[in-house]
Each structure stands twice: as structure tokens, then as C-alpha cells.
Design a protein that fits this description.
Helices cover 33% and strands 43% of the residues. It is an alpha+beta fold. The longest helix has 28 residues, at 135-162.
Length: 165
């Protein structure tokens, strides 16, 4: 299952990068999501910068057939490895992730690109489940949880950049 989302910010690529790699910013996203638990780690990985996210969230509409795999909560892990910026400030990160205890993987990229006087951040992700019969349902659950988190992140980012947080 593919998932693509993008948003624009009224800020430079450098400001957007500083924000999305800030632990406090990421924690605010999880607080707004009302995640049951979460952990954010940001650190150097050679010439790159890694952002590791781990969170647990309630899922209200888990189909009965999928519930035996995930219960009523999803525990997700996600990593982004950001590479050095291009001359214009654009950056690319590889995205990886998994659903704890279930063979569901998330792969893809995210990029921040200058656009006019602002910056666009785009995500191109792919969720794949290696579970017979319920794989598609698990993919939908994970894709929806990631989509909700990204949309909440965009909302928090607009507030953060406008100075209202």
C-alpha cells in the first residue's frame, strides 16, 4: 500500500529541518496525538542525522480478524536518516519502520525542498504486510496510523513555525 503526503511551510529548508529534527517538536506531535507512550531519539549517524520514533496508539476500528495480531493498540517504530543538504538546502531522508511483533514494514523517503519563499515537505511511503489473509487489513491500519501522525505533525509544524506554540 502506497502513501504519499505533502505540505508547504512558510519557512526556509534550514528552519524546517531544524524543527523536524527537534526532540521537543516531535514530542509535541505525540502529545497532540494523545499517544499512549512514545520515545524520540535524534543523533548523528556518520555524516547523516537519524531521527528514531517509537510510539503506541489506540486503534478504534481494528477488524476482529486483525485483532489477534495487534490487539487494540499499534506499537510502531519509525526511523528517518537525513542526508547532508544540497546547495539549495534541499534534503532527502530514507524512512524505515515496522509494526512491533507483526511482519509489517514501512519504507520510503521524505524530502524537504525550497519552493519560492517557503519549503515543501513530501513523503512517499510504502507499507507491506507479510501475513496471509489479513495482510491488506494490517497495511491499511499502519498506513492510517502513519497518515494521522503526519497530518498532526503538519498541524503542529504550522503552529511551531508561526510562533504560536
Amino acid at each position: 500500500m502506497d502513501l504519499s503526503l505533502a505540505t508547504s511551510y512558510d519557512a526556509s529548508p534550514e528552519e524546517v529541518f531544524a524543527m523536524i529534527t527537534d526532540v521537543t517538536f516531535q514530542e509535541q506531535v505525540f502529545q497532540r496525538l494523545q499517544a499512549q507512550s512514545y520515545d524520540v531519539v535524534v543523533g548523528d549517524e556518520g555524516d547523516d542525522l537519524a531521527v528514531q520514533l517509537h510510539w503506541q496508539t489506540q486503534v478504534s476500528d481494528v477488524p476482529v480478524v486483525a485483532r489477534r495480531f495487534v490487539g487494540n493498540t499499534l506499537e510502531l517504530e519509525q526511523s528517518k536518516v537525513w542526508h547532508r543538504p544540497d546547495v539549495d538546502g534541499a534534503r532527502l531522508a530514507e524512512v524505515g519502520g515496522a509494526l512491533a511483533g507483526v511482519p509489517v514494514k514501512l519504507t520510503g523517503t521524505t524530502r524537504i525542498v525550497p519552493e519560492g519563499r517557503g519549503t515543501t515537505q513530501a513523503f512517499d511511503l510504502h507499507v507491506i504486510a507479510s501475513v496471509p489473509v489479513v495482510g491488506t487489513r494490517l497495511e491499511l491500519l499502519v498506513a492510517e496510523a502513519v497518515r494521522v501522525r503526519l497530518e498532526k505533525k503538519f498541524e503542529v509544524a504550522w503552529s511551531w513555525l508561526s510562533g504560536s506554540l
